[in-house]
Amino acid sequence: MSSSFEKNWTNYNNGYSLFDNDVSRFIAVAPSKSQYRLSRKPFYCFVHFGMNTATGREWGAGTETVSDFTIKRIKPDQWVSAVKSAGASGIILTCKHHDGFCLWPTEYSSFSVKYTDYKGDIVKEVSDACRRGSIDFGIYLSPWDMHEPTYGTPDYNDYFCNQLTELLTNYGEISEVWFDGAKGAGAREFEYDWERYYQLIRELQPDANIAICGPDIRWVGNEGGKTRKSEFSVVPAYLKNAEAVSEKSQHTEKNAGKMQRLTSKDEDLGSRAVLSKNAYLCWYPAEVDVSIRKGWFWSKDENRTVKSPRKLFKIYLDSVGNNCTLLLNVPPTSKGVFHQKDVRALKGLGRKINEMNAYPILVEKLGKLTKNDGYIDFTFDRLKKLRYVILSEDIRLSQRVEAFDIFIKKPNEKYKKVASGTIIGSQRIIKLRAKKCIGARLVIRQSRSNPVISEIGFYE
């Protein structure tokens, strides 16, 4: 064996224990059925649409009336078609944003689409379009409400649960319920009854994931598409504390732009050093939320800020390709359609994603590795130009790999290291600059017990 491959997980493991009480505790943490299902569909779209679309604001002012909602119709099938062209698997709709305006005919407020000139139920139209297009439908319901008089009193929790019940019972299967902790600087102090909200969702939509201010999916820590070098899914259980998210969320409308330039203060959320100091652990994968434009609601002044397919693909690689899910916001215009610039960008992204694995060289399912698998060789049938390596762990048995290297085998039979990484998780995508090779070698340097690699693929 070449000296550069001698130290691997089977005999050295970077000096860490391969299996002890701590390791046993770490690998006992695995995703729920709904979290695992999410990992198989890691890219979906946010749709910010509502009163702000009509008024041209990013956040409401708290003074809007139903007459301000002047939109007459929407074309949700166009939204679904555009989303599918990007390769996304679903839509999460802002059923109520901070202004409190409801896109469905709620029985608990007159501040809804029911009392406008719009003829119909926007939530139903979008959810029905998602069913027709065979994609998932999720909901966003803002806990902060500028309009509702009971906000800031115990009665508001009843109001919120009543509206949540309507959304969870009248619109079919809900894939994800998305909460945030955004609250204006002048908002009344108020503690949301998160546990009551969660219990209601579990009762009415047991298969739905609860995101961000929720126990199933964590916020990556910014809204600019940035991720950590090591994005662990096994983390300390205290990270599920919704109030911790609230403190880091937007507190003014102006912050909506600033958030895109921030990164999380806590780079390490799941290394052995962190986990060993915490008695309670959980499976809490990261979601990257980012807008296709500068803002979250549509503005004609931001048409020039639409991200290019190249930029979107980079975000995809850094999120879906780094053990995260991607929630890409695409805001409809006041005409009720996605702007053509957004549509073209989504199609371009979809092409790039499809091109990534359109030309497979070799794809193998490995399973649980043994002491004979310190490194694994892959032989190609002829000289290839390797562009992507895609790896996946079987996360049903937890997240185990902590360090790995990828080597290529050159035509002269010599090996050259082309990539190093830490975590793999549900998916790790490694982009290369067309490396000419006749084979490749995977060396796992460090792992929590035996690695379980569900699949590795090499693509031209």
Q: What labels describe this entry?
A:
460 residues, alpha/beta, 12 helices, seven-stranded antiparallel beta sheet, eight-stranded parallel beta sheet, globular
Q: What overall form do the CA principal axes indicate?
A: globular
Main β-sheet description? 8 strands, parallel
- For this structure, the quaternary state is single chain
- Quote the beta fraction: 25-35%
**Helices and strands: which structural class?**
alpha/beta
pLDDT < 50 stretches: 258-265
- N to C succession of SSEs: HHEHHEHEHEHEEEHHHEEHEHEEEEEEE
Q: What is the number of E strands?
A: 17
Q: Write down the overall mean pLDDT.
A: 93
Q: Span between N and C termini?
A: 28 Å
Biggest sheet: strand arrangement = 5-4-3-2-1-10-9-6
Q: What does this protein structure show overall?
A:
It is a single chain. With 460 residues, the chain is α/β, with parallel strands linked by helices. The protein is 24% helix and 25% strand. It has helices at residues 21-27, 33-40, 51-55, 76-85, 122-132, 154-169, 194-204, 242-248, 255-258, 272-275, 309-319, 340-356; strands spanning 43-47, 90-96, 136-141, 176-179, 209-212, 218-219, 234-236, 281-283, 286-291, 324-329, 360-364, 367-368, 375-393, 401-409, 415-421, 428-447, 452-459. The strands form three sheets. The chain has an eight-stranded parallel sheet with strand order 5-4-3-2-1-10-9-6, sandwiched between helices. The longest helix has 17 residues, at 340-356. The radius of gyration is 23 Å and the shape is globular. Mean pLDDT is 93; it is low at 258-265.
